[in-house]
Structures are given as structure tokens and as C-alpha cells.
Amino acid sequence: MHLLKILLVIFLSVVLFPLSAMANVYVVEKGDTLYSIALKNNTTVSALQDKNNLKDTTISVGQKLNISVVSTTYHSSLKTDRVSRGLSFSGVRMVLGKAISLLGSGYAYGAGGPRAFDCSGFTSYVYKSLGFNLPHNAAAQAAVGKPVSKAGLLPGDLVFFSYYSNRGINHVGIYCGNNKFIHASSSSRGVIYSSLREAYYQNNYRGARRLL
Which of 41 and 117 is assigned the larger pLDDT? Predict the structure, then answer.
């Protein structure tokens, strides 16, 4: 009997452990995007980027991604809040999918897409896909929807900033989880991810609004 237990332990460690490790690896297939992979695995694009040291959302067929970052917290929280806060889970997915698809687009003051954007033009263009007609002005957008505390931010929320600590609201982006947001940054950088933890955005953060 003792020998059988030893053999069982060896079987579990040799056979099942490698299978578990393999389950944490995703091989990119034709048609995959980092966003679609994140949705399949109940995680976020930024979490996959951090885990796999990806500088952007570019992936290639056959590439192996570590998906051990999978967490039900991200999606289950959205589904729970759909009831408690009126949050639309499918709407959030559409907003993030649209925003992510525009990463790398150019910046131009006053532009509202589809090839170039300024900050409020970008958020207006993304939300228009859900039927929202947001004003093309960051300060005006800050009066739309419901206010959200920084601690209560959820993917899809609009986040607002001032310009070098002045009192007004001069910039807006779309929060996407893990302290990151997508925005039309500047003429030199275009539409990019940035972190709320960056000193500039920490110092100039001016609140958030929830539309969904």
C-alpha cells in the first residue's frame, strides 16, 4: 500500500504538473488579438502585457503567452456591478475593444477620427460606437455621467486631468484596469496606454465619470 502511494505521488508530479503548467500557456492563433485573448481568459490586456513584457499590443501567430495572470476578479466585478451600479458588461467590452483597436493612431488638435484624434475627440469617437454623443471637449465631458472615486474606478470609466496643476480640466482618457488608461496623448505619441501612477498623471488627476 505504501508503494502504491509513492507511485501515485510520482504520477501526479510527473504527469499532472506539466499539464497544469501547459494550461498557463496560450499559443496565438490566426485572427487573435491581445484583447480577444484577454476576454477568453478573464483578464485584461494590460495584465497580459505586464506578464509577458509586451511593449504594445502586437502579437504574432505561434507566439506563446503566459496567461497565468487569469483572474475572475476583473470580469466578475463587472458582472456584479452591472446589477449594483447599472454597469453594462457588454458595453464595457465594446468600449475597450474600440479603444484598443485605435492604439497607435495619430494625434491632431481638434481631430475626432477616424485616423487622428485629440483627447476628447478620441473618447467621443469610441463612445459614439455605443450611441453616446459626447461633447468634443474634455471639461464638458466631465459633466456627463456619474462621478466615480479613484478607488472605485472600473474599466470603461472616463478619467480626467488638468494641465500642469491648473484648476481646469484639459485632458481625458478611458480607464482600462490595472491603473492604466488609453488616451490621445500628444502629437509625438498619438493614442497610447499610460499609467495613473506616473507622476504627471498623479499630480494632475481631476476625477472620473461613469457612462455605462
Answer: 117
Name the residue with higher pLDDT: 144 or 47.
144
Residue with cell 482618457: 173
> How large is the average pLDDT for residues 70-88?
45
Nearest to 175 by CA among 117, 126, 121: 126
CA distances from 97 to 102, 114, 139, 151 (A): 9, 15, 24, 23
- Per-residue pLDDT, 37: 77
Residues forming the active site: 119, 171, 183
Q: Phi then psi for 125, rounded to 5 degrees?
A: -65, -45
Output 152 or 130, whichever has higher pLDDT.
Answer: 152
110: cell is: 481638434
pLDDT at res. 165: 76
Measured CA distances, 141 to 58, 84, 134 (Å):
31, 24, 6
- Element (DSSP H or E) covering residue 175: strand 171-177
CA torsion sign for 44, 46, 51, 53 is positive
94 CB-contact burial (10 Å; exposed 0-12 / middle 13-18 / buried 19+)? middle
Cis before residue 114, ω within 30 degrees of 0? yes
The amino acid that residue 148 corresponds to is V
**pTM score, whole prediction:** 0.64
What domains, with CATH codes, occur in the chain? 2-70 (3.10.350.10), 81-210 (3.90.1720.10)
